Structure formats: C-alpha cells, structure tokens
Amino acid sequence: MKIGGVILTRTYNIIGILSCLISFIIMALPMIWYTASALWFFPGAIMILLLSLVIVFCYIKTKNQLHLLLIVLNIIILLFFSLPLLLS
C-alpha cells in the first residue's frame, strides 16, 4: 500500500507543477504578443483560476507543502496577469 501512496503523491506533484507552468505560460503570452487585447485577458484569467483550483485539489489530497507554494505562486501569477484589467 505504501508504494501506491508514493506514486499518487508524485503524480499530484507533477500535476501541480505542470498546472503552475501552464499558468506561467498563459501569463507570458500577452507579454510576448504585445498586441493582445483585453479579450485575451478574461479567458486567460479564467484558465489560471481553474488551474489554481486544480492545485488546491492536489493540496487537499496530499497536504504537501509544495502545493501551498504553488498556490501562492499561482495567485501571484493571477494578480500579475490581471493587473492590466484592474488598472483600466
């Protein structure tokens, strides 16, 4: 039974890290593509929020400190991504 728990924990760690990396890529796309309009920011913010919920689910399942760090990082990414919407 211990081996299955270790495999699931590693799987949740990989899912959490990939979710955070995808959020970072979504945040970086409008910066790279400088002509992005406000229409890109709404779906991007929703996608980042959904990926944050995936990380929260992983944290609830494993109670791992890595997921807490990823949640904080994803919230910072979401705030940084939403900054143009908040300032307009």
Short characterization:
This is Membrane protein. This protein is an all-alpha fold and about 90 residues long. About 90% of the residues lie in helices and about 0% in strands.
Written account of the structure:
- This is Membrane protein.
- It comes from Staphylococcus aureus.
- The protein has 88 residues and is mostly helical.
- It has one domain.
- The chain has three helices and no strands.
- The longest helix is centred in the first third of the chain and has 31 residues.
- The mean pLDDT is 82.
Topology as a string of helices (H) and strands (E): HHH
Structural class call reads mainly alpha
Poorly predicted spans: none
The overall pLDDT, averaged over residues, is 82
Number of individual domains: 1
Query: What is the global morphology?
Result: elongated
Q: Please work out how many helical segments DSSP would assign.
A: 3
> How many individual β-strands?
0
Radius of gyration: 15 Å
What is the percent of helical residues? over 70%
Q: How does the major sheet shape up? A: none
Strand coverage percent: under 5%
Report how far apart the termini are: 53 Å
Protein name: Membrane protein
Organism: Staphylococcus aureus
